[in-house]
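re the bet — no i am not wrong, look at it urself. input seq straight from the record:
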Amino acid sequence: VALALAGCGGGGGRVTGEVGQACMQADRDAASVRLCSCVQQAANTSLNAADQRRAASFFADPQRAQDVRQSDGMADERFWDRYQAFVERARSMCG
């Protein structure tokens, strides 16, 4: 997500929220306070707290995202739909 959203807006000198902090800690070249703050803002408008925790885990373990995407479980499928909506919102807001 962080690389796809490299042009994201945002601001401030500190990133809050689980998704934003995971974005910063992912140690990717595109990660910045500006980008990660924007991604967190998108998460705040798209995902509940439990979904944000789950999405944040994808930054450290991208395989986890693949596992959820490929899962046949209904709960995983519903989460993945919400997660995809979050990604699209973040691209729209931040890209």
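see?? Helices lie at 18-25, 33-46, 49-60, 62-70, 74-94. told u. also DSSP finds five helices and no strands in the chain. so pay up
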